[in-house]
Design a protein that fits this description.
The chain is built from no helices and 10 strands. It is mainly β and 107 residues long. It has one domain: Lipocalin, CATH 2.40.128. The protein has an 8-stranded antiparallel beta barrel with strand order 3-4-5-6-7-8-9-10. Strands 1-2 form a two-stranded antiparallel ribbon. It is globular, with a radius of gyration of 14 Å.
Length: 107
């Protein structure tokens, strides 16, 4: 846990390296979309065609931490300049991607 002081309050952020792993849409291993996060805080977003076991990388980039909100991060795209997706740590092993889509780490 990273604790940053801002003004007279503290902001709590998890080290993005702790998100390492494969996260599946709604926790479904056969979902059409999934995200791979490596040990350096980089992410790749994959989409599968129906019946295709392997996905195609649609986007990738790196995480940055919010400087204003607890447990809030940004997935900054390296493919689409200016695109930064707001990501919340919802629960242990669960990220809320773009405020409305849950991705759960394989257990």
């Amino acid at each position: 846990m990273i604790i940053m002081k801002k003004n007279n309050s503290y902001l709590r952020q998890r080290n993005v390296l702790e998100f390492q792993g494969v996260l599946y849409y709604d926790g479904d291993l056969s979902a059409t979309t999934y995200i791979i996060i490596d040990g350096c805080g980089n992410w790749s977003y994959y989409q599968r065609a129906p019946g295709d076991a392997e996905g195609t990388e649609m986007d990738h980039g790196a995480f940055s931490c919010s400087i204003d909100e607890d447990s809030t991060y940004y997935a900054d795209s390296a493919v689409y300049p200016g695109l930064s997706i707001r990501v919340f740590e919802f629960d242990e092993g669960v990220l809320l991607w773009n405020e409305d889509v849950y991705y759960r780490k394989k257990r």
